[in-house]
Amino acid sequence: MVVIDIHDDDWFFATHKVSGKKGFVPLNYVTHAESLELFDKSWYFPTITRREAESLLLTKEEGTFLVRQSTSKPGEFALSINIWDRVHFPNLNDLVEEYKVNTHGLPMLLGNPCPKVLPTMYELSIETKEEWEIDRGEIKLVKLLGEGNFGEVYYVIAKLLTMVIGKWKDRVEVAVKTLKKGSMPDEQFLEEATIMKALKHENILSLFATCSKEEPIYIITQYMKKGSLQTLLRQHKQEESLSIDQMLEFAFQISKGMHYLECQNLIHRDLAARNVLVDDALT
Q: Where's the Protein kinase domain (predicted)?
């Protein structure tokens, strides 16, 4: 067959060399004469892409193959073959246990599971959800954590009024900020405490309860074991223990907290590293 005219991208006008007949021929039915030998091969798939080849071979038995024209390097050919060198497991538990003792191509054996981050607690107990003025006798000041212009911050073991799910059971670690006498008017304290109690976000410190019937006033919040971000960054400067990715993560989490406050029509009046607290999971 001799091509007389390329009518468009899909059709040729050609003459049959033996019969002399002329007519239109679909493009995908013809090829150069020198490549006809390949078309006799069952393994030759000239027009399929790499993804199509993978899809075709995926369900076939091991060793099934095909040859196709390369899409990335025109004029060259690519061999695709189905090879099953993977290890299969009936369930996830068997997979984990196997990779603890055999690498199967991994650079190392599986070590310890990643510790899970505990969900954020927003309440000290079910009673403090609505009635968050608690008995001062429920609080035992254990250790002084810091001191500021308005008072002191203590590490505390608080007796829970009812059982809390999880490891806390009948007690929970909290931080207690004590307000110095006269440092804040009672009305202002109550207003700010009411606002804080309503905030519920993983990147905003949770206010659990207050003891405001007598001086000094107690503000009971989450206990963040790593202390302030300022302290952590200063330690990092000496030890170089924090990566750039970790510090970017701090910035991201702070931004999430500030965005939440903005959505509540609130602003933080003193956002600084000394006022950002960090827990064991560096969150």
A: 139-283
